[in-house]
Amino acid sequence: MVRFKKRYLVVEVVPERREGFRWAGLQAAVVSAIKKIHGDFGVAATTPGFSVRYHNKGTLVAFISVGRGAHRLVASALPFITQVGEQPATVRSLHIAASMRHGFIFLQKYHEKKLKEMEESLSPAEMQRWQQAKQAALI
Prior knowledge:
Blueprint: E1 6-15, H1 26-46, E2 51-56, E3 61-67, H2 71-77, E4 83-84, E5 87-97, H3 100-120, H4 124-138
Antiparallel strand pairs: 1-3, 1-5, 2-3, 4-5
Helix pairs in contact: 1-2
């Protein structure tokens, strides 16, 4: 028996309003976009192994699991998502990983990079408060 290989798409969901955002419609929104772009063939090709495996409310990041090969169809349909559930939102593809572990490794580096960018944009007074908050969190 042959192993079913998967790919994990690390995506960032950017809703218009963050409060009241519900993750329940993400999978349906992706399937709808695939059907709109690739038709019945796309839906049939991506259905085996397709699911939303992980989502984080704080960072608005989700992992979408799909079979290898069909991940290209899913990735090409993501920019066409305009609503998740009933709320207007966009979905940005950040990374394609072969395992969830490698997806989380990428995510850690991505967040560290974003944090450094944010720190560079702070004024000196804000930077001092930020450093104090980081020290307090480490204690």
